[in-house]
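Thread: "does anyone have the structure for this chain?"

Original post by V.I.:
We have the sequence but no experimental structure in hand. Need at least a predicted one for the grant figures.
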Amino acid sequence: MSAELALQGASLKIGDQWIVKPLSLTIHAGQTVALVGESGAGKSSLLELLRRAHEDQVAWCPQHPALVPMLSLYLNVYMGRLHEFGLWQNLANLVRPDAAQWRAIQQLANELGLLNGSGDQRLSQSAERFSGGEQQRINISRALFQQRPIFLGDEPVSAVDEAQARRIIERIKAHHQTTVLALHDVDLALACADRIIGMSQGEVVLDKPANQLDATTLLTLYPSHQHG
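Reply from O.Q.:
Generated one for you, tokens below.
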């Protein structure tokens, strides 16, 4: 599978309103790209265009986890690959978890700090018993479990502190050849990405290597925040 992302003349329009104005974009295999800009700038919509264009290669991590509250951590992560397994295997897994998948999910959950030394007990707990930040990490685990070459995440670490966010993003990068993240925190974007794409009103207005940018420059993409 290719780990390159490309859009040619892609756009998104609702009625007379451009959500993403026509653009062409290439993200090369191996890059970590941060999409930055105000809420409503078009970051989520650009991620959606990339996802639709490369669905088979992409592990998708939406902004809202959409977990099944009464199902366990294990089953919520396993759902990331439901389509790969047969009906009977999926039904059997509800009753008695598959040993190989259990070990794989246990490893992912441990990497993302979800087990807290309690192992199997936490894997069996229902998703509703986890905090908001933990549910976000379950959502990330489900995307990692898909084992795709490209990770697309829409504010995947918004519910955790910056130090933890950096650690989680490093784990995401370790599992994927190419990573694209919509991030609101410009310091986090500069620390974790090697390329930054800035958006405003549905347009790409900035596209540079992260080492050529600073927080002051990126904050100009947030005029309403600057002016209160």
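V.I.: this helps a lot. The beta strands are 5-14, 17-27, 32-36, 58-61, 150-154, 178-182, 195-200, 203-209.
O.Q.: and The chain has one domain: 5-65+72-226.
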